Amino acid sequence: MNEFLQYTLNGLTVGAFYALVALGYTMVYGIIRLINFAHGDFFMVGGFLALGVLSLLANGGMPAGVLVVVALVAATAVTGALGVASARIVYLPLLKAPQLSLLVSALGLSLAVEYGTALSQGTGFKSVPHIGFLSAENAIQLTDSVRLTYAQLGIFGVSVVLMAALFFFVQRTVTGTTMRTLAMDQDAARLMGINVERTILLTFLIGAGLAGTAGTMYALYYPQVNFLMGFLLGLRAFTAAVIGGIGNIPGAMVGGVIIGLLESYATGYVSGRWTDVVVFGTLIAVLVVRPSGLLGERVAERV
């Protein structure tokens, strides 16, 4: 029982990363029907930005808590700006082009970001400066063998707050309503006076910003970064969005948690080598039984 509880806590931690990244996939797909293959790279960029901020400020005498907040805010803001720039330069000019053009552009952008980072930062793993209170030694002892680290507690808290805020924003605000309207019919949204381009840019800003936040927390939790770290995590986050029902925000959250738990249980009870077999086998099983995902309905009705 203790093992199961520890694996569950670990799975929820990883699931928080997947859920935050999956939200970006599902929002962009809901708005312009694009599978943004570059989205996992925004996560990677967030990790490197955290590394840069921590390296720059770690010896400045700033309190550790403030340092972590500065890294989170800076990485979120810059990756959000990167998402806006990518939408403005790469995707908006292709809105009326065939979907294949958008997909190929997304692949090209992904490779450009990955290998641009490799050229500037190197191809090896880079260590992130140590933050004392986030180390594995600092934990709440729940039972004799079950521990909840302060890093896990922080990841849970930040993720829940961000997901709740996003859900409220999309469902309860005027801007959120314009996003849902755009997801239903882009031409009708234009006729209603909605600024389509601005709404798309806002979607990329939020999605990429969430990926940057996840990348920062990942870098603080493990703590190392590499230019390819966004590939596999992005692929699993996309799987989470599909399992939950791509285009559906609660579905992306649920899918992220499911993938995180599956990964943790597979690693703990079987072997880490079987993780991808379990995760992607589950994806196939879900799609066979429910092709639109667990919470999926008609994508055109949701963001």
From TrEMBL:
Pfam assignment, any one: BPD_transp_2
Keywords from the UniProt entry: Amino-acid transport, Cell inner membrane, Cell membrane, Membrane, Transmembrane, Transmembrane helix, Transport
Topology term for the membrane: Multi-pass membrane protein
Location in the cell: Cell membrane
InterPro entries, per the entry: ABC_transp_permease, BCAA_transport_permease
Annotated transmembrane regions: 12-35, 42-58, 64-85, 97-118, 150-170, 200-221
Family: Belongs to the binding-protein-dependent transport system permease family. LivHM subfamily.
Name under which the protein is recorded: Branched-chain amino acid ABC transporter permease
Source species: Streptomyces plumbiresistens
